[in-house]
Write a structure and sequence with these properties.
Number of helices: 4
Strand content: under 5%
Distance between the termini: 86 Å
Helix content: over 70%
Length: 119
């Protein structure tokens, strides 16, 4: 095992520990932690046994294992960006509803205060 593999395994192990710790603290769901742990495990396997990725790549018609890893990373990032976009849209909708409700309440309160002053 070379120095790069050892470094990657250390980083991936730390990422997995952080993911599990975040789940235990309730910062992320168990499902999210499991997904990140699986990604970390896949990275560790691909780093430890690079020949495995080459054989898998050849089995699906891709020439090199590094290309397979790159393609998978691009697909995972696209899915992650899409999920982030969906969450951001939901947060925007919720914020709009909240601001609308607060504006209505503030308007009702101002109208009520104005009506009380005239009496």
């Amino acid at each position: 095992m070379n120095g790069f593999q050892i470094l990657v395994l250390i980083v991936v192990s730390l990422a997995m520990v952080v993911s599990i710790g975040a789940s235990m603290r309730g910062w992320v769901t168990r499902r999210e932690s499991l997904i990140w742990s699986l990604v970390c495990l896949a990275a560790a396997v691909a780093t430890t046994w690079p020949d495995l990725t080459r054989r898998l790549a050849n089995a699906v018609g891709i020439g090199r294992g590094a290309d397979l890893v790159f393609y998978c990373a691009v697909v995972v990032m696209l899915i992650g960006f899409w999920m982030t976009y969906i969450r951001l849209q939901a947060l925007r909708r919720q914020l709009t509803l909240l601001v609308r409700q607060l504006a209505i309440q503030e308007g009702e309160r101002a109208y009520s205060n104005e009506s009380n002053r005239r009496v």
